[in-house]
Amino acid sequence: MRRILLLITDLEIGGTPTVVRELAVRLHHPPEVRVDVACLAGRGPVADQLEARGIVVKTLDATGAKDFGVFNRFVALLRSESYDTVFSFLIHANVVSAAAALRTRGVRFFQSIQTTQAKPRWHWFLQRVVHRAAEAIVVPSQSVAEAAQLRSHVPARKLIVIPNAIDPADFAEFELRDSSASARPVRVGFIGRLDPIKRVPDLIRAIALLGDTVHLHLFGSGGERERLDAMVQRKHLGQRVTFHGAIERPQEALANIDVLVLPSEAEGFGLVLIEAMAAGVPVVATHVPGIRDVVRHGTTGLLAPVRSPRRLAELIAKVTDNSKLRRKLILIGRNHVRRKYTWEKVLPLYKRLLGLDAP
Which pTM value belongs to this model? Predict the structure, then answer.
């Protein structure tokens, strides 16, 4: 029996933990293949989701970046469970798996980079060192591949682009969704971490420019929450902005918004973009690496320059006021996702990489 371990930094709600969860569930096929998931931190909500679907979750309970004992605990885990393959996601997990590779024999190591974010630079410096321990580095977009080559000197031959994916069945409830946005105020949504790289303040400024025609719904949690709340109050937008906190399923948010906006400064891919397209929710985003790999301006969504609240406001108004354009974006966006970004298309790429192809 093949024994594969997927290693990630944490299992909080987010794009990469979602990818790891779905990959684990789809690769897990006892008795031929057993897939476990381990995280450096303690338990998070995604751990419960994994266990509910039959996946064993191991936590290494690191207390912080200086908890070097996590290396020993991880090596002990590898030896006790006799894994033949380790696939790590994100820089901290990549570092731990690379260190373990020096003390482990008979185990194949793969890594994944999921961002184009330039800072902190030391992440890219560490990746430059640790990629040597991996057979291959999986990235979700060509933009991430280019960033890895430029900033971490990862050879192009080691980089494999495997995009993120969704299961259309998870969005079947949206098939008969009304494509109009005639109701007022229009419900504008953001789904993601409240982190500086997402540039949510730009979206709040855009909402202020649009007046009473729109209401902003923010789904997510993070270190920026207090600052954003203060900004909303300072701009007297308390009646037009609602903080919903983190959600377990994107469908909970997508069922209650008319347009999704992702104003990020950088993304590795933007899983929420294809989730929105699959749900028939048009997207407005920024023309930055990662996002522009997924969204084609005027065809599958609308793209604004980064750090431009005024242009964001213009595009939000355009997609909500122009019913013909809105219907076009919804139709082409949904078809685009089904053609390129479903697990039916993507899973065989992972199986080939990991040597799980059917004989």
Answer: 0.94
